[in-house]
Amino acid sequence: MKFLKLSKNVKAxxxxxxxxxxASEMINPLLPIFITSVLKAGTIALGFIEGVAExxxxxxxxxxxxxxxKIKRKKPFIFSGYLIASISRPLIGITNSxxxxxxxxxxxxxxxxxxxxxxxxxxxxxVSKNETGIAFGFQRAMDxxxxxxxxxxxxxxxxxxxxxxxxxxxxxxxxxxxxxLIYFVKExxxxxxxxxxxxxxxxxxxYLLIFIFFLFNLGNSSDSFLILKANKEGIKVLYLxxxxxxxxxxKSIFSIPFGALSDKIxxxxxxxxxxxxxxITYFFFAFAKSLQFFIFLFLFxxxxxxFSEGSERALISDYSDKEYKGSAYGIYHFAQGxxxxxxxFIFGILWNYYGPKIPFLFGSFISFLSLILLLxxx
Length: 378
Description:
Blueprint: H1 8-25, H2 31-38, H3 43-71, H4 75-88, H5 98-125, H6 132-158, H7 163-169, H8 171-184, H9 204-218, H10 224-232, H11 240-265, H12 267-285, H13 291-318, H14 325-354, H15 357-377
Helix pairs in contact: 1-6, 1-8, 3-5, 3-14, 4-5, 4-8, 5-14, 6-11, 6-13, 9-14, 9-15, 11-12, 11-13, 12-13, 12-15, 14-15
């Protein structure tokens, strides 16, 4: 298998993502219920928490990417980011206020913000151009594999401990990810020293691509709302981690082949298929009443990530030179994060006042419009 021949850096970064997501996804599928049921906050508070977290994440992804290009070092940012997230995330288990959850979620996203763009840049610098799709596909597959395992651990632990203790136990896999990063990931230097400004550094199509990604993500709200929808349709809290694991199983097994497919037939076609799946599933989420149909949609929705995530990041690499990889990923993640902040806030308000149907239809429409623009202009 081609992915077995990927560089040691790519494999090590994959395992870092694996253990970090085991830790993260022990918490994420339970957090919406914790906020709305245990802490007695509503969907507006949930949307605000998710929105602020993503805004923080996006701003820091921009600046960490730029600065990592300037100093020509990626690993210090990656290490700091994983360490901060691994320590702050479990502390949600000792909170008694959604404002404290907001603060800890802010720290978690702060960590993600300073690590993601440098990590993506380091990964792209560790492979040749014709392996970029499969490399990002592998990283996303390991990430989603962790997101599969984490909820299973949560499910097993919930039979012994309460929600708060499960959150605290998530510290263990988080720390393992940090140790793998320290001992197995090597720094890569790409290109000459870069500057802090962007003028003339990227083609006009790069910025058009960023705008289309931004538009798509305006309709791409936090998956926390899907957890609420699942609970509303009759899935008990105890079984939410299992559904979440199956969801990430779909993401994991298809991310590598679809990432490799983008190396062969082109990124745009693969991304377009992913966005079409997103638009279709969000449309039917709006009307789903049968529990069985909702579960099918939820798992089918996982294909969107497999088609799009690795291919989008590989496409960003295609549009950037070695010395500006960090900056390119910083701009991409910044635009994506701002859109996710707006979409989560809008989604929470629409849900609160109109119920779940309208926000899901909004997401379906925006994603389909973005798909049309992608095919016409790029």
